[in-house]
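Hi U.,

Before I forget, here's the chain from the pilot set. I'm dumping it here mostly so it's searchable later in email.
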Amino acid sequence: MPSSEIIIFWQNFGRTYLQKLTNHCIGPVKEVVGSSIFSFYKLNKSKIRDEYIMPVILGAKMDAGKIIYNKITSSHDLYYSIYCRMGVCVKVSLFSQGDITNKQGLFYQDNVESKLYKWFLLVKEDISKFNSTASC
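Structure:
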């Protein structure tokens, strides 16, 4: 079975915490010192809520009244699912590593300049801090 992991972030009294769940274990709860993911989200939530990471589309053409996309997909790519709930606001985003790294895609520049992508990088940074001290 492929390895997967779920990273849960939450805030309590202004402090940010993280816990990692994998196929194999439930990690300890750790405080993430210096995290800015919640403040960044609050400052940019309207943009983040409206943005999507687009797939790698190389081009499109019209054929018999239908749009045919030339897309790159991969079954061995790393996939991300982000679910964020703050109060009544919910944001769900699904994308692959290729969607944010393949420079051939028509939407590559839009993807890497989006607030959603910048927020994702902050999340990855906090996960890296956690992984350097985690036992799971």
